[in-house]
Amino acid sequence: MSVEMDKSYNPASVEDRIYNLWINGGWFHSEPDDNKEPFVVMMPLPNVTGILHTGHALNNGIQDLVIRFQRMRGKNAMWMPGEDHAGIATQIVVDRDLYEKEGKSRFDIGREAFSKRVWEWKEKHGDIIINQLKKLGVSCDWDRFTFTMDENYQVAVREAFCHYFEKGYIYKGNRVINWCPYCQTAISDIEVEHEDSAGHLWHIKYPFKDGSDDGVVIATTRPETMLGDTAVAVNPSDERYKHLKGKTVFLPVACKEIPVIEDDYVDLEFGTGVVKITPAHDPNDFEVGTRHELPMPIIMGPDGKLNKKVPERYQGLTMLEARKKIVDELEEKGLLVKIEDHKHAVGHHDKCKTRVEPLLSKQWFMRMDELVKPAIQVVKDKKVQFIPERWSKVYFDWMENIQDWCLSRQSWWGHRIPIYYCDDCDEIFVSRDEPSACPKCGSKSIRQEEDSLDTWFSSALWPFATLGWPEKTKDLEYYHPGNVLITGYDIIFYWVARMIFSSLEFMGDIPFKYAYMTGLIRDEQGRKMSKSLKNAINPMEVIDKFGTDAMRFTLMFLSTQGGQDIKLGETVLTEGRNFINKLWNASRFTLMNLEDMKPGKPENLQFIDKWILSKLGETVKAVTDAFEEYDIAKGARAIYDFFWTDFCDWYIELSKMPIMNGGEEKTRTQQVLYLCLDTILKILHPIAPYVTEEIWQKLPHKTGDTIMIADWPNHVDFVFDEEATSEMVKVQSAIRAIRNLKAKLRIHQGIIGCKFNAPKETVELLNREKQQIEKQARVEGFEFAENQPDGSVTAVSTDMKFYLDVAGKIDIAEELKRIETSKNKTEAELQKIEKLLGNEGFVKSAPPAVVEKNKVKMEELKSELENLRELSDTLSN
């Protein structure tokens, strides 16, 4: 057999062809099979508006690794793919598209026409991220792909809502919510991005009604909301303001009287210790207002502009426009005491980047106090386990202090709330189907609630709605609960927790056994990726430049268990590509040397064969254990270390001699090479699927259409040989010691003489492996010497000494002089960096990346200095 392989690996010529091979073979699809154990992963839904970013690449790379690993282990692996309708985000995109093309908004064309436009947009643009995921090589069951606005999914959402409503969990109430004036809808906390902003703290005087004193000074970051103030509050324990109890003040610029109240909410240390209370436009003020039964005037309309409840001169202004006008008036009236610089967090809608306004609004809510109890308990009982475990504490903190869930969104795209109103009898009812009449009075004058559901409501049903619920299907019986959810820790509250309590409520069981939290991807300096820093990495560009497998391997290699953030950049991606190229080159060498190989289990193994197979068995176990425990980086690094060092650097080099010798030695070595490469490809496949499939297809195996369903190796099939391993350690130490000393002496070319001294049993080993040692270390005359020969220098490794004949090769005196010069230069540079790092001012003021770079350099210089000293000692003896 002779297999042709290109000299270099070209991902672009392989990836699409291999993916089509998998798709056409139906290898991703799963059906219930009572004779096989299922292994289920539910994909975190990408938004229909989304494009692939590095977080997606990491998250889906890990999911694909897990599903491929379990598929090869004989499990009936099913990875459920899908896409979220992303209500508000999609509405924004289509709204902008409509305005750019026709100069209209959704309000101009109406709900029905707008919904039609969204579906048209979805058909045209909605598969962008799905196609990018395919490019990533994901092996999910595309036959089961589910969109959260599919008809069957809508049935599930309506059933869930009606169930909650009928149990009395859902109610309509007034609360202060996050309001986006651009989108004109309530949004969830996760959709609000908080960024520190340089602002001000305005100190404003509120005059007393009775004129008994000059007035009281409050400090606020939002003077524009004072038009909605209904009280001024002090802390009852604040001795400074005991005299204010029962007083009334005038609200500046509004000519309105408001009371001074006492409430523990007031922070004695903030500002003046006196705060304005605006119940309709601040969530904390709302709680104060509720406790004290204060009026709650809403001064802002849905468009973010002041309404008719404020003086006429402010009506129609945005909140920020009103701020400037109010501050100017306060200054004119002598009521603006002072302005302080103040940094505080300002929330913006993550979709449209509009400043979010707190707004008292009537919305649909769901009571959470009863629903969360079993969801808390299953995590406490370890029925659902977080990986790493520390995220369970974050889960508990939120669940044990949970607020009722605001379900409604003023969006036209999404699951419309299935609540109906009767105009004749004021009946409010829910319906699983489209009702034709009021169930109470029979009137046909009924209308559906205009609001849609929070997108997280529908996605909370993902683990079972995708399997046919509310019907009792075979899929639901077989695949639920799933095995592991792999997602980012930033949506523990909004998705992970909600899937847990939803599954317990509707299925009576947990949705998955493990919740694996991935870390964030940052740039090489540890900074968060952002457009402003221009440091964001586009995975599709990475794939074009480095190949999919190189990117996946890099991400897996860096994804240490613990949800730690990953530093990603050109340097590590290049190393990932180097690894894939090394795999290709090693495979090419192996395949070129398998010609006329006799199939079968290798026999009459020599110590290097026993050693490599022992190391291979250890690696298979390490990788299997790591993948089972979701310690992805540990598994990737075990593969890397074995393949690069043990297999390539050592065994391939040592195998060249027996292959050249021919006969039985060649056959044995061919069989070991084949066994190693076949096993390496299998354990690497979940990480780097394309290149492993391409190479595996060229191996002389006779079974299996794809490596995807090849049997996962079992470490017990590789017998660990302790004696061979121990002998190999000594041979490696000998070769390394000689190579290192030659490198330090800058003897790079030619072969030099070398003798050795060692204990008797080691002498026998070194004599036996003389040919290999001479070949790998590039020495000659390798034999035992009682004493150090004249004109030689010594390399030491444990109980072995090696005498290199340097006569005529180097001038020892000149070499010592060079080393001394290098030592002095290195010491001077080291002292300079140590002095710099010893300067507290530098450490505190310099960018962290600069400080870290100097620390790394300091350690490198210390190591270099130690090596120079050792070499000086060697040459001096």
Briefly summarize what is shown.
The protein is of the alpha/beta class and 877 residues long. 44% of the residues lie in helices and 17% in strands.
Strand content: 15-25%
Overall number of strands? 29
Percent in helix: 40-55%
Average of per-residue pLDDT values: 92
Rg from Cα: 36 Å
Number of helices: 28
* Main sheet: strands, sense, barrel: 4 strands, antiparallel
Class by helix and strand content?
Answer: alpha/beta
Distance between the first and last residues' Cα:
55 Å
- The coarse overall form would be globular
Q: If strands are numbered along the chain, what order do they take across the biggest sheet?
A: 6-5-14-16
Contiguous uncertain segments of 5+ residues: none
Helices and strands in order:
Blueprint lengths: L14 H11 L12 E5 L11 H19 L3 E5 L1 E2 L3 H16 L3 H4 L1 H15 L2 H8 L10 E2 L3 H16 L3 E11 L4 E3 L4 E15 L9 E5 L10 E4 L13 E4 L4 E7 L11 E4 L5 H9 L27 H14 L3 E14 L7 E10 L5 H9 L4 E3 L3 H9 L5 E2 L1 E2 L9 E4 L5 E3 L15 E3 L3 E2 L1 H5 L2 H4 L8 H6 L2 E7 L3 H16 L4 E7 L2 E2 L16 H8 L1 H11 L7 E2 L2 H23 L14 H22 L3 H30 L1 H22 L4 H8 L25 H23 L7 E6 L2 H9 L1 H8 L1 E6 L7 E6 L2 E6 L6 H26 L2 H6 L2 H29 L1
Parallel strand pairs: 1-2, 3-4, 9-11, 15-23, 22-23, 24-25, 26-27
Antiparallel strand pairs: 5-6, 5-14, 7-8, 7-13, 9-12, 10-11, 14-16, 17-21, 18-19, 18-20, 26-29, 28-29
Helix pairs in contact: 3-5, 10-11, 16-17, 17-18, 17-20, 18-20, 19-20, 19-21, 19-23, 20-21, 21-22, 23-25, 26-28
